[in-house]
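STRUCTURE:
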């Protein structure tokens, strides 16, 4: 405690040095803490359930012939049919229970108000397998999920209960209308539980067996070739994941071979073999099921690497600062040693000062971390940021504290060791320069600066790669016009609209919107543009070969008349859709260039017949070919794509409406809300945003990584320049007598300048030799995040090297200028 009090007084007596050290270190610690907070929320934090380590997710590697539907809970390997879920529940003996879940959109109505929300369809075993207890009422049991369509009950999420019902306990037993179906509220899920899929925050939980009732027109509940459910389980005590996997494999294959294989006709021999011998696997499920963790892993690792290097540069600067400060206290240390103090006591004293600095920097770093987290979240889409928090959990505070201690030890150890290794005789003669100018101290200081130059070069190259990648993404030709376009979604089917009634609604909506002064056009589509959605199907194209192993898949969309004209997509051949393309007219379709290249590479596809609904489907005639345009993602190439008039699509009900207008965005939005409210006040508007903002959201990860990489790289370069300036200034201040002697015996100022720049050149050269290969290695790690470029881009490398060398030599200019102006007579009287 006495050491801490003395350390506090020592730091208080040199406030400027202490403040600079704290601020520099706070930037490094704060940046790392912010990235760790995101890491904790995306990759490290387990589900808030008892013993999450016992949870496993079930996957298979086999083909899934038929209909498949995935979302951000996982890919094709993670989905099962409803009958298979029930079969696994029946045959398993190694789990305390198996549960299934699937998210879906929903319209929630209560007390005359309808809002758009998110549902989580869950099996009756879902909450028991997770081991959760209700915050109010009760949760589902297996008895609430036995009969398809027979359980009109619902459990509210805790956040929905809080926001919508103000935690009213009287809500139990009341009716909440979900997708037009009145359902009784049984209970409220525990606080903090947001389901088992990261990035999803469902408002309500409903029984899995109610899927068909809540999705009008859907009939896939009993079909074994309809894959849509995600499945997890909890291991029995004493059963390992490997043992459970081996025990479940046999019963699973029996179901596959004895039941499902016979129902999947039309498979090739090769596909049958793969289907028959597929492997069931169990993977850790403590963190739930989500694609987002895998997608976020590489960006978080990259940002962690960058912020870690920034912290190392800050530590190097403070180590040099403390070393210089210790040199000026050499006489004090020598006196204390001569009076009987031990070297360990002095080291302990200096380390206490370092730790106080680092802990103060850690506290300030929390403010930096909060601001950095807010900045990162500002780049991400609202549906993702809604499940993240800028506030910190205990693991984040623990990380910041441990990082502060580690940083204090790293930058304080060598200065403490070196400062206490005194030559008492020299020190008592007031030759304090001995300490600082020793070879070990000089080599250490220059090594730190060289490392700083290498790291700053590494970070500048990385930032340059990401920045150039972002620039290239921004230059991508989307194939559509995005300016002055506002879009919004509607889900009439969830309010029990039939497809025919929904089409009437969209026709009226288009008519009323087009009549608004300033609106140039309004058009309905089935799949929103560049929103990450992919709708695809196998097609049978006239003249194109057929077979079980031939790729005949295409993306699709249903659109209204004038769509291509409004979106600025050129018609290359034929015509676009017209108002006359109704359900009673001959079926027609328009395809893009990629579709024609794939299915009719040797000639025009105009006039050919395309079937997209099986052998009994009469198909449509291709009446137009349009230029390729982006479909799901800015970065992905345009896929083979066909368009149908939405009026000729018998199952079309839920769609997206785009409005092109010369009005201000706020005025367009107001008109949209007014007209939708006039047509159906119970129909909530979804995803209301400009098309430009949708495109921006689609590349949000690239924008976030590029911005943060550039900001941290510039910060690191500035810190490195400050470190270089400090070392050179201190070194040549200690060599003032030597420089004065050189000048007195006839040395020219230019020779003194060259003396400084020679040191700079050596440090810059070695730093470049170390930094460039490291930058290439980091670029290879991040290459998957780069768009149409390689990690070794010469323009980025040469530009970054030039920038580092410029900054380094500018940092060396002031010490060189000061050394050139030394007065020999003053220098000879120095010290």
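SEQUENCE:
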């Amino acid at each position: 405690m006495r050491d801490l009090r003395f350390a506090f007084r020592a730091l208080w007596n040199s406030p400027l040095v202490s403040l600079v050290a704290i601020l520099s270190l706070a930037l490094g610690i704060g940046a790392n803490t912010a990235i760790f907070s995101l890491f904790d929320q995306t990759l490290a934090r387990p589900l808030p359930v008892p013993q999450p380590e016992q949870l496993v997710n079930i996957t298979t590697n086999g083909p899934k012939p038929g209909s498949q539907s995935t979302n951000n809970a996982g890919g094709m390997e993670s989905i099962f049919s409803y009958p298979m879920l029930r079969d696994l529940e029946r045959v398993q003996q190694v789990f305390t229970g198996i549960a299934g879940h699937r998210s879906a959109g929903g319209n929630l109505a209560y007390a005359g108000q309808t809002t758009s929300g998110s549902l989580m369809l869950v099996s009756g075993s879902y909450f028991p397998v997770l081991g959760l207890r209700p915050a109010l009422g009760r949760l589902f049991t297996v008895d609430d999920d036995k009969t398809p369509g027979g359980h009109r009950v619902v459990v509210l999420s805790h956040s929905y209960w809080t926001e919508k019902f103000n935690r009213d306990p009287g809500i139990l037993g009341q009716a909440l209308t979900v997708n037009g179906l009145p359902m009784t509220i049984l209970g409220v899920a525990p606080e903090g539980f947001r389901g088992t899929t990261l990035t999803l925050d469902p408002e309500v939980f409903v029984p899995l067996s109610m899927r068909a009732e809540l999705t009008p027109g859907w009939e896939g509940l009993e079909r074994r070739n309809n894959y849509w459910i995600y499945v997890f389980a909890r291991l029995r005590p004493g059963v390992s994941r490997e043992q459970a996997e081996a025990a479940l494999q046999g019963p699973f294959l029996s179901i596959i071979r004895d039941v499902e294989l016979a129902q999947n006709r039309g498979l090739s021999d090769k596909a049958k073999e793969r289907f028959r011998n597929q492997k069931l696997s169990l993977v850790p499920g403590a963190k739930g099921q989500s694609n987002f963790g895998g997608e976020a892993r590489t960006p978080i690792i990259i940002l962690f690497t960058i912020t870690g290097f920034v912290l190392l540069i800050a530590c190097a600067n403070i180590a040099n600062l403390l070393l210089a400060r210790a040199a000026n206290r050499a006489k004090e240390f020598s006196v204390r040693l001569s009076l009987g103090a031990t070297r360990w006591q002095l080291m302990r004293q200096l380390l206490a000062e370092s730790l106080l600095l680092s802990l103060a920097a850690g506290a300030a770093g929390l403010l930096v971390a909060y601001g950095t987290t807010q900045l990162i979240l500002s780049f991400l889409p609202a549906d993702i940021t809604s499940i993240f928090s800028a506030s910190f959990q205990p693991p984040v505070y623990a990380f910041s504290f441990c990082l502060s201690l580690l940083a204090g030890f790293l930058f304080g150890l060598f200065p403490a060791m070196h400062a206490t290794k005194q030559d008492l005789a020299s020190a008592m003669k007031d030759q304090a320069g001995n300490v600082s100018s020793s070879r070990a101290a000089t080599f250490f200081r220059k090594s730190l600066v060289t490392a700083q130059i290498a790291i700053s070069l590494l970070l500048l190259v990385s930032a340059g790669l990401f920045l150039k990648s972002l620039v290239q993404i921004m230059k991508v030709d989307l194939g559509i016009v995005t300016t002055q376009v506002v879009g919004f979604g509607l889900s009439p089917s969830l309010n029990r609209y039939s497809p025919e009634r929904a089409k009437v609604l969209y026709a009226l909506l288009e008519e009323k919107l087009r009549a608004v002064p300033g609106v140039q056009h309004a058009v309905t589509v089935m799949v929103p543009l560049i929103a990450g959605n992919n709708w695809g199907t196998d097609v049978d194209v006239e003249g194109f070969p057929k077979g079980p192993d031939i790729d005949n898949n295409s993306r699709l969309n249903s659109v209204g008349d004038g769509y291509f004209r409004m979106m600025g997509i050129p018609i290359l051949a034929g015509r676009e859709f017209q108002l006359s393309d109704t359900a009673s007219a001959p079926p027609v379709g328009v395809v893009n260039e990629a579709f024609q290249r794939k299915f009719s590479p040797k000639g025009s596809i105009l006039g050919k017949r395309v079937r997209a609904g099986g052998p009994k489907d009469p198909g449509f005639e291709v009446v137009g070919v349009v230029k390729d345009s982006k479909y799901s993602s800015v970065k992905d190439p345009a896929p083979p794509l066909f368009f149908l008039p939405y009026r000729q699509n018998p199952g079309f009900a839920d769609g997206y409406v785009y409005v092109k207008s010369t009005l201000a965005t706020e005025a367009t939005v107001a008109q949209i809300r007014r007209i939708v409210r006039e047509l159906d006040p119970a129909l909530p508007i979804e995803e209301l945003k400009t098309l430009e903002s949708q495109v921006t959201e689609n590349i949000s990860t690239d924008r976030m990584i590029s911005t943060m990489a550039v900001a941290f790289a510039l910060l690191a370069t500035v810190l490195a320049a400050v470190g270089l300036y400090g070392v050179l200034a201190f070194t040549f201040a200690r060599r003032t007598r030597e420089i004065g002697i050189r000048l007195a015996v006839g040395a020219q100022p230019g020779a003194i300048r060259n003396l400084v720049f020679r040191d700079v050149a050596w440090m810059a050269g070695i730093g470049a030799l170390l930094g460039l290969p490291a930058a290439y290695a980091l670029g290879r790690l991040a290459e998957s995040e780069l768009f149409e470029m390689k990690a070794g881009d010469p323009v980025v490398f040469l530009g970054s090297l030039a920038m580092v060398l410029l900054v380094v030599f500018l940092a060396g200019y002031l010490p060189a200028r000061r050394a050139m102006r030394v007065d020999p007579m003053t220098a000879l009287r120095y010290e």
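REMARK: The longest strand covers residues 95-110.
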